[in-house]
Design brief:
CATH topology of the largest domain: Peroxidase, domain 1
Structural class: alpha+beta
Number of helices: 8
Largest sheet: 4 strands, mixed
Helix content: 55-70%
Number of domains: 2
Shape: globular
Distance between the termini: 37 Å
Strand order of the largest sheet: 2-1-3-4
Radius of gyration: 20 Å
Order of helices and strands: HHHHHHEHEEEH
Strand content: 15-25%
Number of strands: 4
Length: about 180
C-alpha cells in the first residue's frame, strides 16, 4: 500500500513532464526497456534495492548506464529517485505510470492467470470480452500458475474474476465444514 502512495506522485510527475516535453513515446519505451532490464538482471535489481550505496553513487551510476540509450528526461527521473532515496519504489512507479498512460489512451490493463498457457485465439476472445465489459481497449498480460489447478483468474483494473479450480475447491471445502 505504501508503495502505491509513494509511486503515484512520481508517476504522475513523470507523465506530465513527458507530455509537456512532447516525449511521451520515448519515455514509454524507456520504461519498457527498464522493465526488461530488471527482469533480466538480478544485479540491477539488487543495485536499485540496496540501501548500502549512497544516493550520489546510485545517481552517477544511472547517468553512466543509461546516457546513450535513454531519453534525458528518463535519466534525470532515475537520478531524482536515487537522490530522494525512492529508487526502491521504481517498479511500483513504472506500474502506476503505465496505468496513467493507459487511462489517458482509453485503455485498461488486465492480467489473466491460467494453469496452462492460453492460445492466441483464446487470448483474442478474452480481450474482446473484457473490452466489451469495461468499455475500454484492454491491454492483456498473461501468466501461468499451476497452483490454480485449472480455470482462470482475471484482474481487470481493481476487479478480480476468480474462476480457478483451486478457489472453487476451497469454497466447497468451507461449505462442507459449515455443514
Amino acid at each position: 500500500m505504501r508503495d502505491i502512495r509513494v509511486a503515484k506522485p512520481y508517476a504522475r510527475a513523470l507523465y506530465e513532464a513527458a507530455v509537456e516535453q512532447n516525449a511521451l513515446t520515448a519515455i514509454i519505451a524507456d520504461i519498457e526497456k527498464m522493465r526488461e532490464l530488471l527482469d533480466q538482471s538480478e544485479e540491477l535489481t539488487q543495485f536499485i534495492n540496496t540501501p548500502l550505496l549512497s544516493p550520489q553513487i546510485k545517481s552517477d551510476t544511472f547517468q553512466q548506464l543509461f546516457t546513450d540509450g535513454m531519453h534525458p528526461l528518463t535519466i534525470n527521473f532515475f537520478k531524482l529517485l536515487a537522490q530522494k532515496q525512492r529508487e526502491r519504489y521504481l517498479i511500483a512507479i513504472m506500474n502506476v505510470f503505465s496505468d496513467i498512460v493507459d487511462e489517458a489512451a482509453g485503455r485498461i490493463a488486465a492480467k489473466v492467470t491460467t494453469a496452462v498457457p492460453i492460445t492466441q485465439n483464446q487470448e483474442q476472445r478474452l480481450i474482446q470480452q473484457l473490452s466489451a465489459y469495461s468499455g475500454k481497449q484492454v491491454r492483456l498480460e498473461t501468466d501461468t500458475d499451476e497452483r490454480i489447478q485449472g480455470g482462470f483468474i482475471v484482474q481487470l483494473g481493481d476487479t478480480v474474476f476468480d474462476a480457478s479450480v483451486a478457489t472453487q475447491l476451497q469454497r466447497l471445502k468451507q461449505q462442507l465444514a459449515k455443514g
